[in-house]
Amino acid sequence: MPNDRLPLQRWEFYPEKPQQAKELAEKFHLSPLLAQVLINRGMETPTQVREFLEPETQFLPDPLDEFPDLGISVELLENAIASQGKIAICGDYDADGMTSTALLLRSLRSLGADVDYAIPSRMTEGYGINCRIIEEFHTEGVQLILTVDNGIAAFEPILRARELGLQVIVTDHHDIPPKLPPANAILNPKLIRETSPYRGIAGVGVAYILAVCLAQKLGLAKGLIKPMLELFTLGTIADLAPLTGVNRRWVKRGLQLLPYSQLAGVQALIQISGVESSSNSLLKNSVRASLVDNSAIATEGLTTKPTPKTQKSLNPEDIGFRLGPRINAIGRISDPQIVIELLTTDNMGVALKRAMQCEQINQKRQMLCEEIEQEAIAWCEQSQIDLQQERVLVVVQPNWHHGVIGIVASRLVERYGVPVFIGTYEEEDSDRIRGSARGIPEFDVFEALLSCEDLLGKFGGHKAAGGFSLPAENLTEFRRRLSKFAHKLLQPEHLKPLLKIDAKAEITDINLELYQQIQALQPCGIENSAPVFWMSDARIVEQQIVGKGHLKLTISQFSSPDKIKAIAWRWRDYFPLPNRVDLAYRLRENNFNGSKTVELELLGVRQAKPLSWQTFTARNIPLKAEFYHNQKRYTCGLYPNDSLTELRIKNAEGKVLAVPLGKTIGLLGKTREDAAEINILQPPYFTLVEAAQIALEKLK
Question: Which residues of the chain are modeled with pLDDT < 50?
């Protein structure tokens, strides 16, 4: 029997604008479905659509005019390089921080700087530059400190650096604190005008702008832009920065460069992660050289249109699900130096060795996440916590790894639909708890933590996520206080994961042409999500569990003889799905043995609308429909027969199944005289009658 437990979800549909979609579709030769998606993304005029589809046509202001301290920062670095003053970078242990650090190390070394770096320990020091690092830099004779992806809130450490006579440039993208640090220069997109196309850049975006402007000022940009753009792309996508404005423009360029990267570490990482097959090895320098003219890219800079055209491009998913996790895993449970060396070495042997370490550590990270997730779910089930009443989930257990509990928090949000605060006890101090939090759209994580400030030690974050520590004795009050805060913001209807759906697309609408048109929306990601479609009355023809708890399915619909394959990631707990459902999905391409097909990636499922015959019995005219069942064509209709209304289903051979509405016994045959009585509750007749009902429902 089907499992009645389906994913806990609330579906929210964008408003349909068929006339506007039709006009845009005709003007740009697009599918109306794609035009509707563009409208949903805020592109409602031809100018907006053109700039979105062709981001290079958008005017991009000079960053020196946008960032007040950019000129000062370039001058400080230029003077340090000229005098051979020692420069030190302080980075962060996430993908954004590590790619930023690698980007500036490579570029500054290429420009002749004496530069080194440090990254604080996630396990013992936590995020951001600290006084220990400042003192260490001073002892080593550092003259200029450059923070990347951190520093905007580090008032005391930066004050100490200035007291010691060090110059400091802060490059960061996090929220602005009430009191800015006393740095010589601060570069942060949160400090520039809100309408600037640079407003949404991550830490690696700030590092990229600084490095390019410095290289151009020194007249040494040739050969540097391309590798920096690749690192910018890796960091921007891995950090979940919004893919709008300049991020969209530059990431689109970077994705075209990555398949032919000349960075040894990127080559190795792409090969190890399986993004490229060995038959199309990235080590073929002759192929790379013919496809990418590095000198053309080097002169392209920040604001002008690039000249190279590559034949292949990665998608953000390749980074988000393949490359990014292998980089992030290092910062979560290992030594960030592995990634820095991976992304700065020119030795292919060293790069492959470091990429293999990334692979092995990511496998360990996956195992830890799976174990902790299952333990957290078991705790929730055993404790029988009433999430409708609590409206927030707080789960703390010993011996969990601090570096991965944030990932588990996100998974629990997907599963339970409530804000999640997950923690574990400090290894060196079992009386203290350290944790991570993830929210839902209607809940502000940082404000929730702020409401518990007197119970906490260190804490920080933003609306969607945060981190915290607290004495173990405060846990009960912390849980109570969070629940009280959640009750102010959340209603029972909010306690389901939100799925925003763009448009309805049935099986008959889906083909390779539609999929290829949708690729014009790439790069997709935060604030430019890939389209989500839905179909009604889908039939689950086949389903099985594959891999690590994924569902592989075959889908059909009454209106078409076609079938389509689908995958549902991590849906093991919902197996088997009901036979008849509504589905929400994204499109994905399957390339097998050179044959390309379109498949569905399921994101949501709900019970299909119950069938009812009452609306038909009052009609005085026959209703007729055509449908397919088990790849066979049928016609059906409702006809008056004496005082009853009768459903008649006819196959290609002329046999008719006639069933009075409300009855379970029908007649099957070519004529009534030779017809046999059939119980329609028995297979295969029940599903055939149900398919006919669905076809007639569509006529209402």
Answer: 1-2, 277-300, 307-311, 618-619
Residue 654 CA to residue 622 CA, distance in Å, equals: 19
Burial class for 210, CB neighbours closer than 10 Å (0-12, 13-18, 19+) = buried
Name the β-bridge partners of 545. 551
Task: Give the model's pLDDT for residue 618.
Answer: 45
Site of tokens 């669905």: 694
As a whole number of angstroms, the distance between CA 353 and CA 358 comes to: 9
Neighbours of 349 (CB within 10 A): 10
What letters, b where the CB count within 10 A reaches 16 and e where it falls short, cover 62-91? ebeebbebbeebbebbeebbeeebbbbbbb
Instruction: Report CA-CA distances (Å) from 522 to 35, 429, 511, 519.
Output: 14, 47, 18, 5
Are 76 and 185 contacting, i.e. CB atoms less than 8 angstroms apart? yes
Within 10 Å of residue 5's Cβ, how many Cβ atoms?
8
**Burial track 230-257 (b if 16+ CB lie within 10 A, e otherwise):** bbbbbbbbbbbbbbbbbbbbbbbbbbbb
Strands laid side by side in the 459-461 sheet: 393-396, 420-425, 432-438, 465-471, 459-461
Residue-range domains of the chain with CATH:
10-15+499-607 (2.40.50.460), 63-358 (3.90.1640.30), 385-493 (3.10.310.30), 614-697 (no CATH)
pTM for the whole thing? 0.78
CA-CA-CA-CA dihedral for 107, 112, 114, 119, to nearest 10? 0
Gap between the Cα atoms of 23 and 30, Å rounded: 10
- Residue 547 sits at φ, ψ, to 5 deg, of 55, -140
Rounded Cα distance between 65 and 60, Å, is: 11
Tell me the pairing of strands 465-471 and 459-461: antiparallel
**Structure tokens that stand for 240 in this block:** 């979940």
Query: Is 605 exposed, middle or buried (CB count within 10 Å of its CB: 0-12, 13-18, 19+)?
Result: buried
Would the CA dihedral through 573, 579, 583, 588 be positive or negative?
positive
Report which of 602, 611, 555, 594 is spatially closest to residue 574, judged by C-alpha positions. Answer: 602
Structure tokens at 683: 């297979």
Measure the CA–CA gap between 18 and 338, rounded to whole angstroms: 52
Tokens 């010993």 belong to residue: 398
Residue 323 DSSP one-character state? I
Burial class (CB in 10 A: 0-12, 13-18, 19+), 2: middle
Note the pLDDT of residue 175: 83
Alpha carbon 660 to its chain's center: 51
* Rounded CA separation 11/536 (Å): 13
